[in-house]
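Dear colleagues,

For the upcoming journal club I promised to circulate an example of a predicted protein-ligand complex. I picked one with S-adenosylmethionine because it came up in last month's discussion. The inputs are reproduced below in full, followed by the predicted structure.
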Amino acid sequence: MALGQYATNLSVTGVDFCNEMLAKARERVHLRKLTQVKELRKMDAKAFDFPDDYFDTVVAMHVMSIVPDPERVVAEMARVIKPDGKVVMVNHFASGKGFVAAIERLTARFSNMLGWRSDFENAQILGVPGLAIAHGRSFQAFGIKTFLALQKTSLIAPTPRSA
Ligand SMILES: C[S@@+](CC[C@H](N)C(=O)[O-])C[C@H]1O[C@@H](n2cnc3c(N)ncnc32)[C@H](O)[C@@H]1O
């Protein structure tokens, strides 16, 4: 849980649909006096109970390869960020080559047991309309995790100027 990593001048809203995770988060907020965390709510990321253009940034850490419908979750994240807002993710994405890819393919057979998909392709979420890659880099040994920042872009094509 990264709640303590957010700067104290921020206003953080956390969501999860699991009561146990929310209870852990609330305990951490209380014990560490994380005043930047304004609320923790039970919510399904496939259908946020937030208005359009609401947040400056939405962060999803280690979530995309777990949720059953990642495209829909990313579309929801795009909806609730302000124009020019960012969606920031940390996730393991399939590397597609070499030794790591072989391990990914092997462990993918046990996705049901593991609760996440080791062979999850980033293409699944990069095609969501209204978001463009602002920054992406891999980190940790073998580059197994990717930090990805997506920027909201206008879906409306500019009106051609009349001559
Ligand atoms: C691997 S944990 C990561 C938690 C946290 N982001 C972290 O980095 O410690 C993934 C979390 O996603 C939550 N989750 C899965 N599907 C969800 C959904 N559709 N809506 C909201 N939360 C969901 C799970 O309950 C779980 O707590």
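Two points we might discuss: The mean pLDDT is 87. The two ends are 56 Å apart (CA to CA).

See you all on Thursday,
B. R.
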